[in-house]
Amino acid sequence: KRGNVWYFGEKTAAYLPGGKIDRSGSWEAGVKDGEPGIIMLANPQIPDAYRQEYQKGNAEDTAWVVNRGTSASVPFGTLHNVLTSLEFARIEPKVVDQKLYAPRIGIIQETALTGPPEVAKLVRIIK
Question: Which DSSP letter does residue 63 get?
Fold first, then answer.
């Protein structure tokens, strides 16, 4: 669909003790059956759901639109017309994240709803 924001891959790196690097979760569309996903629909509506990334057994994130048109305050400021999604993966059934998106900016807050408490908030934009 015209206007969707597509996602064609991800190169991850988790630095572990002993100098080891974990790159699990890395994928690329067109490589090893990786398929492109959508990070943001052109016109997201409640309760749209869409696949963000896909490589079987490695990258299977899905988003579900649960709210839109609200305001949210983060250290960067108060933003309006915010969209809220819940994101999860079949390969991590007990992990759910909530993401807030602002128009013309992108993700402004990400909160782990399960597991250890984790929150990331937009502090500033550097142009």
Answer: E
